[in-house]
């Protein structure tokens, strides 16, 4: 199931993986030599937007113009793209971009299954997006791991408790601020990406605060975040460890060019990880690529129901 059947990773993926190898090599060298300045110069080299086609400008041990101890230097470009910035204007794409792309999304993690999912994504050389909660401190290291392996991190809420999260607008943003801090502690910044528990179309919130989703669906973007619903669901939320065949059948559909696929990452979703290779292979066989969400990605918004 790990065979790619002749499918080659995209040029982007190859570039991405090559960059990862260079960064890993840089970290190893620095671990041996203990030079923080060298790390910066090597990583800045690896992260340059115009990747050199040869090694002619590889920095040497004598490179002296290095800034001291940058925080998370390997991810500076992605941080600039994905960081929450209330003053930034983005031209969001609410329509398909015309190219066959699957955005795999995993809600509710991190969990005991996160690393399994990450390993499968790595086997295929693809990336996904994880909308995380603050519910399980034991697995928070997987947030950082997911990010460092090229995946996008978004915020799902701190508690995922509908009664708490949807008590009021203030309660929602208070909860969001908490999970923002959790994510910042792991990846160094607050991302702009949000997914509402139950999606923006949820009506459960009406039990606690009538009209709240109408308010939040306007105020969350107005504050500089973007929220992402989905257009295909894996069906893995129907119960604990839904049958693999059921998840595959729900996930593998025709008729969409851009697919925002809802999956879950929790201790009771081992079968989602088991289904993942078949889902990935189906879309590869049908000419799709996979991408983590960024500001240029397809944005799905549901019809708000409260
Ligand atoms: Zn959820």
Automatic annotation (TrEMBL):
CDD domains: CE4_SmPgdA_like. One of its GO terms (molecular function) is hydrolase activity, acting on carbon-nitrogen (but not peptide) bonds. One of its GO terms (biological process) is carbohydrate metabolic process. The chain crosses the membrane at residues 21-43. Residues 100-291 form the NodB homology domain. PROSITE patterns: NODB. It comes from the Bacteria. Residues 49-75 are annotated as: Disordered. Keywords: Membrane, Transmembrane, Transmembrane helix. InterPro entries: Glyco_hydro/deAcase_b/a-brl (IPR011330), NODB_dom (IPR002509), Polysacc_deacetylase_ArnD (IPR050248). Pfam families: Polysacc_deac_1 (PF01522). Residues 61-73 have a biased composition (Low complexity). This is Polysaccharide deacetylase. It comes from Thermophilibacter immobilis.
């Amino acid at each position: 199931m790990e065979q790619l059947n002749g499918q080659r990773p995209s040029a982007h993926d190859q570039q991405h993986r090559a960059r990862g190898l260079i960064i890993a090599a840089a970290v190893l060298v620095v671990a041996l030599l203990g030079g923080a300045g060298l790390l910066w110069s090597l990583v800045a080299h690896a992260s340059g937007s115009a990747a050199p086609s040869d090694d002619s400008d590889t920095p040497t041990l004598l490179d002296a113009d290095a800034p001291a101890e940058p925080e998370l230097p390997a991810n500076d470009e992605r941080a600039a793209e994905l960081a929450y910035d209330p003053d930034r204007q983005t031209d969001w794409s609410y329509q398909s971009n015309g190219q066959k792309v699957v955005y795999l999304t995993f809600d509710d993690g991190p969990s005991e299954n996160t690393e399994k999912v990450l390993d499968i994504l790595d086997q295929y050389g693809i990336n996904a997006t994880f909308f995380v909660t603050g519910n399980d401190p034991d697995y928070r290291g997987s947030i950082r791991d997911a990010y460092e392996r090229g995946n996008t991190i978004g915020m799902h809420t701190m508690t995922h408790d509908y009664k708490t999260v949807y008590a009021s607008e203030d309660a929602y943003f208070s909860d969001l601020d908490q999970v923002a801090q959790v994510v910042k502690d792991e990846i160094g910044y607050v991302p702009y990406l949000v997914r509402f528990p139950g999606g923006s179309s949820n009506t459960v919130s009406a039990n606690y605060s009538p009209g709240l989703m109408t308010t939040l669906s306007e105020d969350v973007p107005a504050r500089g975040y973007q929220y992402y619903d989905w257009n295909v669901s894996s069906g893995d939320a129907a119960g604990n460890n839904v049958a693999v065949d059921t998840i595959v059948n729900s996930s593998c559909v025709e008729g969409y060019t851009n697919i925002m696929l809802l999956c879950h990452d929790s201790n009771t979703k081992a079968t989602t990880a088991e289904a993942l290779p078949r889902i990935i292979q189906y879309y590869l066989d049908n000419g799709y690529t996979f991408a983590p969400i960024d500001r240029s990605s397809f944005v799905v918004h549901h019809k708000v129901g409260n």
